[in-house]
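Much of what follows relies on a compact textual record of a protein's fold. A record is reproduced here so that you can trace the correspondence yourselves:

. . .
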Amino acid sequence: MTDTNIPAETPTPSGPVRAERVTHSLVRDVALPGGTGTMALVTLDNGLDHTKPNTLGPQGLAELTATLRRLQGRAAAGEIVAVGVTGKPYVLAAGADLLGVGAVARRADALELGRAGHAAYELLHTMGVPTFAFVNGIALGGGLELALSCDFRTVSTDAGALGLPEVGLGLVPGWGGSYVVPHLVGIEKAVDVLLTRPAANKPYKAAEALDAGLVDAMFDAADFLEQSIAWAERVVRGEVSVPRREPDPEPVWDAVVTATRRRLDAVVAGSRPAPYRALELLAGARTWTRAEAFAAEDEALADLIMSDEMRASVYAFQLVSGGKKPAGAPTSDLARPVTSVGIVGAGLMAAQIALLVSQRLGVPVVMRDLDTERVDKGLGFVRSTVEKLVGRGRMTPEVAARITASVHGTTQTTDLAGCDLVIEAVTEVMDLKKRVFAELEGIVSENTVLATNTSALSVTEMASGLRHPERVVGIHFFNPVAQMPLVEVVKAGRTSDEALATAFAVTKKLRKTAVLVADRPGFVVNRLLVLVMGKVVEAVENGTPVEVADTALAPLGFPMPTFELFDLVGPAVGLHVLTSLREDLGERFPRSPGLEKLVADGTRVVLDAPGAGLPKPVDPAIQAAFGPARRGEPGVLDAAGVLDSVLVALTVEIGHMLDEGVVATPQQIDLCMILGAGWGFHTGGITPYLDRAGYGERVLGRRLLPDGVANVPGNAA
């Protein structure tokens, strides 16, 4: 952060201000409106625009410490009655400088980083006068821990994200969060804050943070700071009391820790250290003193900063952050305006797309299907989903009413004539999709872009019979559409730059990350994910017990075991794509008579989950469809053998994909697998994982990633 340029005397709604510039923050003396005294208000500001949030590194922590020590002296002298901390517009702080953390080369330096954060933040806890955090925007990681170190916290209604995402990045909350949170909100909610939400990449919104007890009051964004300062004065005067909960009793605390450890063993299966270290800190927080807890955080943070998983996470973080500017996309000025969207189909996928388009683009949407029953079902999905979102407080009734009024249904293809973009989302049958496009071409404007949501079929072939195949582009969404952040934008053989630019522009407005892929079978995610599932099933066909094969891929960090993924995708869909890829790409994609039998019989492949948050185990009864298990016999793979066979197959396939030019770089394969398949952040992506494990050199005789890719263990120059 850099110096701000605010004049020494600046009027504010709360009274006259005396300003003192410091490198990373502005300290202003604010006369509390009721005449109680003076609050020193610290505003964190790196001097950049709001798209570059405040972060804290060694220099920032040192200067924050110096600022707070000066304020502590003023508090002791009776010059101030309170200290407040807030941020520049839209941002309190986004925590530590992650790229700087990833560049730490010595454990001693990593240890010192933790200690420096504690030294700075503890001054807020021991200031000698009440301290307040006015959370005016994003407060993640060390940013939220700064707020938690204060005595009291307010939040703006429009604060977009509050949370402690460190565990998802291979770290732990290391500046007090692991100790303060369980004492503030209780051990059960602390598990949600430190473990559950980071795993789901789901920070708190303002109202959720208030409900959880992470903040004490919420005020409207329009006059947030004024209301917060007025509330703070009432607290200082004793007119407002903020109750604090008693610590959970030992049996409750220990029971939650035990249940969480059992869940980690089932879900994480020891594949990465950060969740376990975080749980150790939560467990210890019951009996440790504040100083003991902070020392334990320092040690855990130092260990994890030096771990492969954390360095790999930094690489993954950089990929995801950089994915907002898609490689190879045409200039945005070529995109055609989209004022209405048509969707062919009204099934689940089509209805999800319709809802997202209406919500994010704010344009009329028309869903067309063969009969009114299907159309009504699609419209019913839209209505029921927005009703649930309103009921959960995640959508206002006004927005819900706009969406339901803007999504229409029809059985007439001619009702799509006025649409600027039409997305087909019908069954994955090539002849059917070709007929849809042929019919559309005779109805829509010559400027209308035609898109397909196909998951594996050739977009080039789909457009081959059209008079204007250049208007056809692939826009492949992933299920569930609302949650999955990736869209594969497929350039067919004759796709124009205008159609491609339109696809990227629409994807951006939908707040998705787009990756440009060539029109090759399965594109990226399905080609690799179906290969993974196919190799696991092949092992079972050859005698590996289904329960062994099901959990063999735990080290890869997929969000669920293989057969639960099959169940989510649908065995029939998985079989269809596997068969399609085998026809196009050959015997690298195995045939599975057992899977064919399961699909023919309509057999479910998993049992119900044994508890909330636990994976669904494979049903051992399906073994009969694949033939008998032959545990331990020659040629039958154990768990390690199944994992090795999958990694070899992935290495071979990625080599083919790079040779074919499916994407421009291996990093884009990593981005697709992280965002589209849930590939674990802690692995850094699929290609660095394979390189670290030696598969690139062993299988292809070359590394998959270029040498010198920063922060990836085993890939540094």
